[in-house]
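Readers outside the structure-tokenisation community will struggle with the description of the input data as it stands. For illustration, here is how one protein appears when written out as sequence plus structure tokens:
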Amino acid sequence: MNRIVTLVVFIFLANIAIGQKFAYINSQAILGNLPEVKQANANIETFRNQLISLGQKKLEALQKKYKDLEQKQQRGELSPKQLEAESQKLKADEEKLNKFDQESQQRIMEKSEELLKPIRDKVQKVIDDVARENGYEFIFDASMGFILYADKSTDISDKVKMKLGIK
């Protein structure tokens, strides 16, 4: 970690000596103010809740099958062979439910990427434009936690927000 900090400080000082301009932004604060992000997050949450609801229904159906099997066993309606066969079917259904849960998590991540990537790309383009227009060589992201100190005058978040139409 110390090597990275030393390297960043060295690069920073070397670049100051040759007159390069630096700035920083807080990308999380910018993204958090975009209506598109709020809408995308609402859509992701709705999608997530739909999958949770579907998973819950599948779980309830499986629990009912287990209960029915237990009742049949208690009433003596099943031979040991039948009980074993039914138990195997329920275990297969349980594995399907676990697979559905894993696939649901993957689908939520894919939906999130599908909805948020175009927004992140748009913000990145605006950051690039602001950097070019103002002659910045480097723009750091304060939300990543790598900036230990920066003069407020080098914060260009407001310029990026203005160009994005947010405040």
Remarks:
- The longest strand covers residues 136-141.
- The two ends are 36 Å apart (CA to CA).
- The longest helix spans residues 80-134.
- Strands lie at 21-25, 136-141.
